[in-house]
Design brief:
The chain is of the alpha/beta class and 446 residues long. It contains 10 helices and 19 strands.
Length: 446
Protein backbone atom coordinates (compact mmCIF):
# COMPACT_ATOMS: atom_id res chain seq x y z
CA UNK A 1 0.00 0.00 0.00
CA UNK A 2 1.09 3.58 -0.58
CA UNK A 3 0.42 6.88 1.13
CA UNK A 4 -0.64 10.14 -0.51
CA UNK A 5 3.01 10.90 -1.31
CA UNK A 6 3.41 7.59 -3.15
CA UNK A 7 5.62 5.98 -0.48
CA UNK A 8 5.29 2.27 0.21
CA UNK A 9 3.85 1.75 3.68
CA UNK A 10 5.05 -0.82 6.19
CA UNK A 11 2.22 -1.10 8.69
CA UNK A 12 2.64 -2.30 12.28
CA UNK A 13 0.05 -2.01 15.01
CA UNK A 14 -2.86 -3.56 16.87
CA UNK A 15 -6.46 -4.55 16.59
CA UNK A 16 -8.45 -2.11 18.73
CA UNK A 17 -10.23 -3.69 20.35
CA UNK A 18 -12.16 -6.78 21.35
CA UNK A 19 -13.94 -4.79 24.05
CA UNK A 20 -15.95 -3.04 21.31
CA UNK A 21 -17.84 -6.24 20.51
CA UNK A 22 -20.14 -6.11 23.52
CA UNK A 23 -20.13 -2.37 24.28
CA UNK A 24 -23.55 -0.75 23.99
CA UNK A 25 -22.10 2.16 22.01
CA UNK A 26 -19.84 -0.09 19.95
CA UNK A 27 -16.68 1.66 21.16
CA UNK A 28 -13.63 -0.14 22.55
CA UNK A 29 -12.54 0.42 26.12
CA UNK A 30 -9.55 2.41 24.86
CA UNK A 31 -8.73 6.04 25.55
CA UNK A 32 -6.58 8.61 23.83
CA UNK A 33 -4.16 8.26 26.75
CA UNK A 34 -3.94 4.53 25.99
CA UNK A 35 -3.07 5.34 22.40
CA UNK A 36 -0.47 7.88 23.47
CA UNK A 37 1.21 5.25 25.64
CA UNK A 38 1.14 2.69 22.82
CA UNK A 39 2.59 5.21 20.39
CA UNK A 40 5.34 6.34 22.77
CA UNK A 41 6.38 2.88 23.95
CA UNK A 42 6.06 0.82 20.76
CA UNK A 43 6.21 3.20 17.79
CA UNK A 44 3.18 1.70 16.06
CA UNK A 45 1.77 3.38 12.96
CA UNK A 46 -1.32 1.33 12.14
CA UNK A 47 -4.60 0.15 13.67
CA UNK A 48 -7.24 -2.31 12.59
CA UNK A 49 -10.16 -0.58 14.26
CA UNK A 50 -13.22 -2.71 14.97
CA UNK A 51 -16.63 -1.46 13.86
CA UNK A 52 -19.87 -3.43 13.63
CA UNK A 53 -22.84 -3.73 11.30
CA UNK A 54 -25.24 -3.64 14.25
CA UNK A 55 -23.88 -0.22 15.25
CA UNK A 56 -23.74 1.20 11.72
CA UNK A 57 -27.29 0.10 10.82
CA UNK A 58 -29.26 -0.37 14.05
CA UNK A 59 -32.53 -0.40 12.09
CA UNK A 60 -33.06 -1.43 8.45
CA UNK A 61 -31.96 1.43 6.22
CA UNK A 62 -31.09 3.79 9.09
CA UNK A 63 -27.38 4.52 9.47
CA UNK A 64 -26.30 5.88 12.83
CA UNK A 65 -24.36 9.09 12.30
CA UNK A 66 -23.93 9.29 16.08
CA UNK A 67 -22.01 6.02 15.98
CA UNK A 68 -19.94 7.05 12.97
CA UNK A 69 -19.12 10.30 14.78
CA UNK A 70 -17.69 8.30 17.68
CA UNK A 71 -15.62 6.27 15.23
CA UNK A 72 -14.44 9.46 13.53
CA UNK A 73 -13.41 10.95 16.87
CA UNK A 74 -11.16 7.97 17.56
CA UNK A 75 -9.80 7.98 14.02
CA UNK A 76 -8.79 11.57 14.80
CA UNK A 77 -6.69 10.38 17.74
CA UNK A 78 -4.75 8.16 15.37
CA UNK A 79 -4.53 10.80 12.64
CA UNK A 80 -2.92 13.30 15.03
CA UNK A 81 -0.11 10.78 15.59
CA UNK A 82 0.44 9.89 11.95
CA UNK A 83 -1.28 6.49 12.00
CA UNK A 84 -3.07 4.76 9.17
CA UNK A 85 -6.43 3.19 9.99
CA UNK A 86 -8.14 0.12 8.58
CA UNK A 87 -11.80 -0.09 9.56
CA UNK A 88 -12.78 -3.70 10.19
CA UNK A 89 -16.45 -4.76 10.01
CA UNK A 90 -16.12 -7.30 12.78
CA UNK A 91 -18.26 -10.36 13.46
CA UNK A 92 -17.92 -13.63 15.35
CA UNK A 93 -20.63 -16.30 15.48
CA UNK A 94 -22.67 -13.89 13.33
CA UNK A 95 -24.53 -11.73 15.86
CA UNK A 96 -24.93 -10.62 19.44
CA UNK A 97 -28.62 -11.41 18.99
CA UNK A 98 -27.72 -15.11 19.07
CA UNK A 99 -27.80 -16.43 22.60
CA UNK A 100 -28.24 -19.86 24.15
CA UNK A 101 -31.99 -19.60 23.52
CA UNK A 102 -31.67 -18.89 19.80
CA UNK A 103 -32.29 -15.47 18.31
CA UNK A 104 -32.78 -13.03 21.13
CA UNK A 105 -33.02 -9.38 20.28
CA UNK A 106 -31.10 -7.36 22.78
CA UNK A 107 -27.93 -9.46 22.90
CA UNK A 108 -28.46 -10.55 26.52
CA UNK A 109 -26.29 -13.60 27.07
CA UNK A 110 -24.89 -13.08 23.59
CA UNK A 111 -22.64 -15.75 22.12
CA UNK A 112 -21.61 -13.75 19.07
CA UNK A 113 -21.26 -10.21 17.73
CA UNK A 114 -21.58 -8.27 14.52
CA UNK A 115 -24.93 -8.34 12.74
CA UNK A 116 -27.96 -6.45 14.05
CA UNK A 117 -30.81 -8.37 15.65
CA UNK A 118 -33.17 -7.51 12.79
CA UNK A 119 -30.82 -9.28 10.34
CA UNK A 120 -30.50 -12.45 12.45
CA UNK A 121 -32.64 -15.40 11.40
CA UNK A 122 -32.00 -18.71 13.15
CA UNK A 123 -35.44 -20.03 12.14
CA UNK A 124 -35.93 -21.44 15.62
CA UNK A 125 -33.06 -23.91 15.38
CA UNK A 126 -31.21 -24.66 18.63
CA UNK A 127 -28.16 -22.80 19.91
CA UNK A 128 -26.28 -24.36 22.81
CA UNK A 129 -23.35 -23.24 24.94
CA UNK A 130 -20.08 -24.94 23.99
CA UNK A 131 -16.86 -25.66 25.94
CA UNK A 132 -14.86 -23.58 23.43
CA UNK A 133 -16.17 -20.50 21.66
CA UNK A 134 -15.05 -21.76 18.25
CA UNK A 135 -17.46 -24.70 18.59
CA UNK A 136 -20.39 -22.28 18.72
CA UNK A 137 -20.20 -22.18 14.92
CA UNK A 138 -21.41 -25.80 14.85
CA UNK A 139 -24.79 -24.90 16.37
CA UNK A 140 -27.70 -25.46 13.95
CA UNK A 141 -29.10 -22.01 14.76
CA UNK A 142 -25.76 -20.33 14.04
CA UNK A 143 -25.31 -22.19 10.77
CA UNK A 144 -28.85 -21.20 9.74
CA UNK A 145 -28.19 -17.52 10.55
CA UNK A 146 -25.20 -17.57 8.19
CA UNK A 147 -27.11 -19.50 5.52
CA UNK A 148 -29.82 -16.86 5.62
CA UNK A 149 -27.25 -14.08 5.35
CA UNK A 150 -25.52 -15.69 2.36
CA UNK A 151 -29.02 -16.48 1.01
CA UNK A 152 -28.16 -20.11 0.41
CA UNK A 153 -31.64 -20.70 1.86
CA UNK A 154 -33.17 -18.48 -0.83
CA UNK A 155 -35.20 -16.65 1.84
CA UNK A 156 -33.26 -13.46 2.55
CA UNK A 157 -31.67 -11.87 -0.54
CA UNK A 158 -32.06 -8.47 1.13
CA UNK A 159 -29.41 -9.06 3.81
CA UNK A 160 -26.37 -8.88 1.53
CA UNK A 161 -27.72 -5.66 0.02
CA UNK A 162 -28.19 -4.17 3.48
CA UNK A 163 -24.61 -5.15 4.33
CA UNK A 164 -23.23 -3.52 1.17
CA UNK A 165 -25.16 -0.31 1.78
CA UNK A 166 -24.01 -0.21 5.40
CA UNK A 167 -20.45 -0.30 4.12
CA UNK A 168 -21.32 2.42 1.65
CA UNK A 169 -22.50 4.60 4.54
CA UNK A 170 -19.17 4.04 6.31
CA UNK A 171 -17.18 4.82 3.17
CA UNK A 172 -19.19 7.95 2.50
CA UNK A 173 -18.32 9.19 5.99
CA UNK A 174 -14.58 8.50 5.67
CA UNK A 175 -13.85 8.90 1.96
CA UNK A 176 -12.02 12.21 2.49
CA UNK A 177 -10.29 11.18 5.74
CA UNK A 178 -6.61 10.75 4.94
CA UNK A 179 -5.98 8.56 7.99
CA UNK A 180 -8.46 5.89 6.89
CA UNK A 181 -6.54 3.95 4.29
CA UNK A 182 -8.51 0.69 4.07
CA UNK A 183 -11.76 -1.16 4.69
CA UNK A 184 -11.62 -4.79 5.91
CA UNK A 185 -14.91 -6.02 4.48
CA UNK A 186 -15.66 -8.85 6.93
CA UNK A 187 -13.83 -10.39 9.86
CA UNK A 188 -13.26 -14.15 9.54
CA UNK A 189 -16.10 -15.05 7.16
CA UNK A 190 -17.93 -18.31 7.85
CA UNK A 191 -20.01 -19.98 5.17
CA UNK A 192 -22.57 -21.80 7.29
CA UNK A 193 -23.47 -25.01 5.49
CA UNK A 194 -21.23 -24.11 2.52
CA UNK A 195 -17.50 -24.35 3.16
CA UNK A 196 -14.14 -24.31 1.39
CA UNK A 197 -13.65 -23.14 -2.20
CA UNK A 198 -17.39 -23.45 -2.89
CA UNK A 199 -17.98 -20.75 -0.28
CA UNK A 200 -14.97 -18.53 -1.00
CA UNK A 201 -15.39 -18.53 -4.78
CA UNK A 202 -19.18 -18.39 -4.51
CA UNK A 203 -21.16 -16.48 -1.87
CA UNK A 204 -18.11 -14.77 -0.34
CA UNK A 205 -16.67 -13.50 -3.64
CA UNK A 206 -20.16 -12.38 -4.68
CA UNK A 207 -20.59 -10.37 -1.48
CA UNK A 208 -17.13 -8.86 -1.78
CA UNK A 209 -17.90 -7.72 -5.32
CA UNK A 210 -21.19 -6.20 -4.23
CA UNK A 211 -19.64 -4.36 -1.30
CA UNK A 212 -16.69 -3.13 -3.38
CA UNK A 213 -19.05 -1.77 -6.03
CA UNK A 214 -21.08 0.02 -3.33
CA UNK A 215 -17.97 1.53 -1.75
CA UNK A 216 -16.63 2.75 -5.08
CA UNK A 217 -19.77 4.77 -5.67
CA UNK A 218 -18.63 7.08 -2.84
CA UNK A 219 -14.92 6.37 -2.28
CA UNK A 220 -12.43 5.89 -5.12
CA UNK A 221 -9.24 5.95 -3.08
CA UNK A 222 -9.35 3.70 -0.01
CA UNK A 223 -8.09 0.14 -0.22
CA UNK A 224 -10.56 -2.73 -0.03
CA UNK A 225 -9.27 -5.67 2.02
CA UNK A 226 -10.47 -9.20 1.39
CA UNK A 227 -10.28 -11.85 4.09
CA UNK A 228 -10.55 -15.57 3.29
CA UNK A 229 -12.71 -17.94 5.29
CA UNK A 230 -11.27 -18.42 8.76
CA UNK A 231 -11.67 -22.15 9.27
CA UNK A 232 -8.64 -23.89 7.83
CA UNK A 233 -6.99 -20.84 6.28
CA UNK A 234 -6.14 -19.42 9.73
CA UNK A 235 -4.40 -22.73 10.40
CA UNK A 236 -2.36 -22.73 7.19
CA UNK A 237 -4.64 -24.49 4.69
CA UNK A 238 -5.03 -23.06 1.16
CA UNK A 239 -7.63 -20.41 0.39
CA UNK A 240 -10.01 -20.67 -2.52
CA UNK A 241 -10.75 -16.94 -2.66
CA UNK A 242 -11.03 -15.62 -6.22
CA UNK A 243 -10.35 -12.26 -7.79
CA UNK A 244 -12.89 -9.47 -7.70
CA UNK A 245 -12.94 -6.46 -10.00
CA UNK A 246 -12.25 -2.99 -8.66
CA UNK A 247 -14.37 -0.45 -10.59
CA UNK A 248 -12.29 2.53 -9.45
CA UNK A 249 -10.56 4.76 -11.98
CA UNK A 250 -6.89 3.79 -12.22
CA UNK A 251 -5.08 0.79 -10.77
CA UNK A 252 -7.09 -1.48 -8.48
CA UNK A 253 -6.78 -0.93 -4.74
CA UNK A 254 -7.49 -4.40 -3.45
CA UNK A 255 -5.55 -6.06 -0.63
CA UNK A 256 -5.50 -9.52 0.93
CA UNK A 257 -5.96 -9.69 4.69
CA UNK A 258 -5.72 -13.23 6.09
CA UNK A 259 -5.29 -14.21 9.74
CA UNK A 260 -2.85 -16.67 11.32
CA UNK A 261 -3.68 -18.87 14.31
CA UNK A 262 -1.77 -22.18 14.25
CA UNK A 263 -3.77 -24.92 15.94
CA UNK A 264 -0.97 -25.53 18.44
CA UNK A 265 -1.05 -21.94 19.70
CA UNK A 266 -4.86 -21.90 19.67
CA UNK A 267 -4.77 -24.88 22.05
CA UNK A 268 -2.26 -23.10 24.32
CA UNK A 269 0.59 -25.51 23.63
CA UNK A 270 3.29 -22.84 23.63
CA UNK A 271 6.16 -22.61 21.17
CA UNK A 272 8.54 -25.37 22.17
CA UNK A 273 9.30 -28.99 21.36
CA UNK A 274 6.93 -30.76 18.99
CA UNK A 275 4.48 -27.85 19.16
CA UNK A 276 7.18 -25.52 17.87
CA UNK A 277 7.95 -27.84 14.95
CA UNK A 278 4.28 -28.05 14.03
CA UNK A 279 3.83 -24.30 14.39
CA UNK A 280 6.81 -23.56 12.16
CA UNK A 281 5.37 -25.87 9.51
CA UNK A 282 2.03 -24.03 9.74
CA UNK A 283 3.67 -20.63 9.41
CA UNK A 284 5.63 -21.77 6.36
CA UNK A 285 2.60 -23.20 4.57
CA UNK A 286 0.52 -20.15 5.53
CA UNK A 287 3.22 -17.88 4.16
CA UNK A 288 3.41 -19.71 0.83
CA UNK A 289 -0.36 -19.84 0.39
CA UNK A 290 -0.75 -16.19 1.35
CA UNK A 291 1.66 -15.18 -1.41
CA UNK A 292 -0.08 -17.48 -3.89
CA UNK A 293 -3.53 -16.12 -3.05
CA UNK A 294 -2.33 -12.51 -3.20
CA UNK A 295 -0.97 -13.20 -6.69
CA UNK A 296 -4.24 -14.78 -7.80
CA UNK A 297 -6.15 -11.76 -6.52
CA UNK A 298 -4.04 -9.55 -8.80
CA UNK A 299 -0.62 -9.42 -7.10
CA UNK A 300 -2.14 -7.36 -4.31
CA UNK A 301 -0.64 -6.06 -1.05
CA UNK A 302 -0.93 -8.20 2.08
CA UNK A 303 -1.91 -7.32 5.63
CA UNK A 304 -1.81 -9.95 8.35
CA UNK A 305 -5.07 -8.83 9.93
CA UNK A 306 -4.73 -10.90 13.10
CA UNK A 307 -2.27 -13.05 14.96
CA UNK A 308 -1.63 -13.33 18.66
CA UNK A 309 -1.24 -15.61 21.64
CA UNK A 310 -1.05 -15.72 25.41
CA UNK A 311 2.27 -14.02 26.10
CA UNK A 312 2.79 -16.13 29.25
CA UNK A 313 3.03 -19.40 27.30
CA UNK A 314 6.50 -20.95 26.79
CA UNK A 315 8.32 -19.55 23.77
CA UNK A 316 5.83 -16.71 23.24
CA UNK A 317 8.51 -14.12 22.48
CA UNK A 318 10.19 -16.40 19.96
CA UNK A 319 6.87 -17.08 18.26
CA UNK A 320 6.06 -13.37 18.00
CA UNK A 321 9.48 -12.72 16.44
CA UNK A 322 8.93 -15.67 14.09
CA UNK A 323 5.64 -14.29 12.76
CA UNK A 324 6.99 -10.75 12.31
CA UNK A 325 9.92 -12.21 10.37
CA UNK A 326 7.53 -14.17 8.14
CA UNK A 327 5.48 -11.04 7.49
CA UNK A 328 8.61 -9.05 6.69
CA UNK A 329 9.71 -11.66 4.16
CA UNK A 330 6.49 -11.29 2.16
CA UNK A 331 6.16 -7.53 2.67
CA UNK A 332 3.03 -7.80 4.81
CA UNK A 333 1.69 -5.28 7.27
CA UNK A 334 0.70 -6.66 10.67
CA UNK A 335 -2.14 -5.96 13.11
CA UNK A 336 -1.57 -7.91 16.34
CA UNK A 337 -4.60 -9.25 18.24
CA UNK A 338 -5.15 -7.17 20.31
CA UNK A 339 -4.64 -4.01 22.38
CA UNK A 340 -7.06 -5.22 25.09
CA UNK A 341 -5.56 -5.49 28.59
CA UNK A 342 -4.54 -9.02 29.49
CA UNK A 343 -1.92 -11.65 28.82
CA UNK A 344 -2.64 -11.56 25.06
CA UNK A 345 -2.05 -7.81 24.90
CA UNK A 346 0.76 -5.33 25.55
CA UNK A 347 -0.41 -4.43 29.07
CA UNK A 348 -2.00 -6.31 31.95
CA UNK A 349 -5.15 -4.92 33.61
CA UNK A 350 -2.97 -3.25 36.27
CA UNK A 351 -1.07 -1.39 33.52
CA UNK A 352 2.18 -3.33 33.74
CA UNK A 353 3.70 -4.30 30.38
CA UNK A 354 3.85 -7.80 28.97
CA UNK A 355 6.76 -9.03 26.87
CA UNK A 356 4.86 -7.80 23.82
CA UNK A 357 5.92 -4.20 24.44
CA UNK A 358 9.59 -5.04 24.03
CA UNK A 359 8.86 -7.36 21.11
CA UNK A 360 6.97 -4.61 19.28
CA UNK A 361 9.38 -1.76 20.03
CA UNK A 362 11.82 -2.48 17.21
CA UNK A 363 13.29 -0.40 14.40
CA UNK A 364 11.40 -0.55 11.11
CA UNK A 365 10.92 1.56 7.98
CA UNK A 366 7.42 3.10 8.05
CA UNK A 367 7.24 4.76 4.65
CA UNK A 368 9.68 4.03 1.80
CA UNK A 369 10.20 6.34 -1.19
CA UNK A 370 10.08 3.48 -3.65
CA UNK A 371 9.64 -0.29 -3.62
CA UNK A 372 11.14 -2.15 -0.64
CA UNK A 373 13.28 -5.14 -1.55
CA UNK A 374 14.32 -6.26 1.94
CA UNK A 375 14.86 -4.89 5.40
CA UNK A 376 16.20 -6.32 8.62
CA UNK A 377 17.05 -5.29 12.14
CA UNK A 378 19.67 -6.49 14.56
CA UNK A 379 20.91 -5.20 17.87
CA UNK A 380 21.37 -1.44 17.34
CA UNK A 381 21.12 -1.73 13.55
CA UNK A 382 18.65 -1.35 10.69
CA UNK A 383 19.30 -2.22 7.06
CA UNK A 384 16.94 -1.32 4.22
CA UNK A 385 17.21 -2.02 0.51
CA UNK A 386 14.73 -0.52 -1.94
CA UNK A 387 14.27 0.61 -5.52
CA UNK A 388 13.72 4.40 -5.37
CA UNK A 389 10.82 5.92 -7.27
CA UNK A 390 11.90 9.18 -8.95
CA UNK A 391 8.31 10.41 -8.82
CA UNK A 392 8.27 10.26 -5.02
CA UNK A 393 9.79 13.40 -3.51
CA UNK A 394 8.90 12.71 0.13
CA UNK A 395 11.71 11.19 2.21
CA UNK A 396 11.90 7.67 3.53
CA UNK A 397 10.74 7.46 7.15
CA UNK A 398 12.23 5.07 9.72
CA UNK A 399 11.23 4.42 13.33
CA UNK A 400 14.10 3.88 15.79
CA UNK A 401 13.43 2.78 19.41
CA UNK A 402 15.08 4.72 22.20
CA UNK A 403 16.67 1.74 23.96
CA UNK A 404 18.78 0.87 20.89
CA UNK A 405 19.18 4.38 19.44
CA UNK A 406 19.39 6.69 22.47
CA UNK A 407 21.40 9.47 20.83
CA UNK A 408 22.57 10.58 17.40
CA UNK A 409 22.76 8.12 14.51
CA UNK A 410 25.11 7.29 11.66
CA UNK A 411 23.48 6.69 8.28
CA UNK A 412 25.14 5.25 5.18
CA UNK A 413 23.56 5.05 1.73
CA UNK A 414 21.29 8.09 2.15
CA UNK A 415 21.29 11.68 3.38
CA UNK A 416 19.67 12.49 6.71
CA UNK A 417 16.80 14.94 6.37
CA UNK A 418 15.82 14.94 10.02
CA UNK A 419 16.32 12.88 13.17
CA UNK A 420 13.59 13.63 15.71
CA UNK A 421 14.60 12.05 19.02
CA UNK A 422 11.19 12.82 20.53
CA UNK A 423 9.04 11.08 17.92
CA UNK A 424 11.90 8.60 17.20
CA UNK A 425 11.45 9.21 13.47
CA UNK A 426 14.41 9.40 11.13
CA UNK A 427 13.81 10.69 7.60
CA UNK A 428 16.37 10.15 4.87
CA UNK A 429 16.69 11.07 1.20
CA UNK A 430 18.13 8.56 -1.24
CA UNK A 431 20.66 9.69 -3.86
CA UNK A 432 19.23 10.32 -7.32
CA UNK A 433 19.98 8.27 -10.39
CA UNK A 434 20.37 4.90 -8.69
CA UNK A 435 18.32 1.75 -9.33
CA UNK A 436 18.86 0.26 -5.87
CA UNK A 437 19.52 1.98 -2.57
CA UNK A 438 20.89 0.27 0.53
CA UNK A 439 20.56 2.23 3.75
CA UNK A 440 22.18 1.28 7.06
CA UNK A 441 21.40 3.01 10.35
CA UNK A 442 23.40 2.51 13.55
CA UNK A 443 23.95 4.60 16.71
CA UNK A 444 26.63 7.23 16.29
CA UNK A 445 30.03 5.73 16.95
CA UNK A 446 29.04 2.09 16.49
Amino acid sequence: MTDDAGRSLILRGFNTASSAKSALDGMPDFTEADLEREHAEMGTNFVRFLISWRSVEPEPGRYSQDYLELVEERVGWYAERGYKVMLDMHQDVYSGAIDSHGAGGNGAGALGNGAPAWATYTDGLPVLDMPRWELLYLNPGVIRAYDNFWNTTGRHPELAEHYALAWQAVAERFEDNDAVIAYDLMNEPFGGSVQGPAFEAGPLASLYQRVTDAIREVDQDSWVCLAPQAIGVNQGLPSGLTRIEDPRTGRPRIAYCPHLYPLTSELGSGYEGVARTLTDATVETWQADTVRTAEELGDVPIILGEFGLDTTTPGAREYIDRVYAAAREIGAGVAYWSSDPGTWGPYLPDGSPTLLVDAMDRAYPRAVAGTPVAWSTGPRRLELTFHPDPAVTAPTEIYLPSDEFPGDVDVTGATVVRWDRVSRLLTVQAPGGTETVSVTVVPEGD
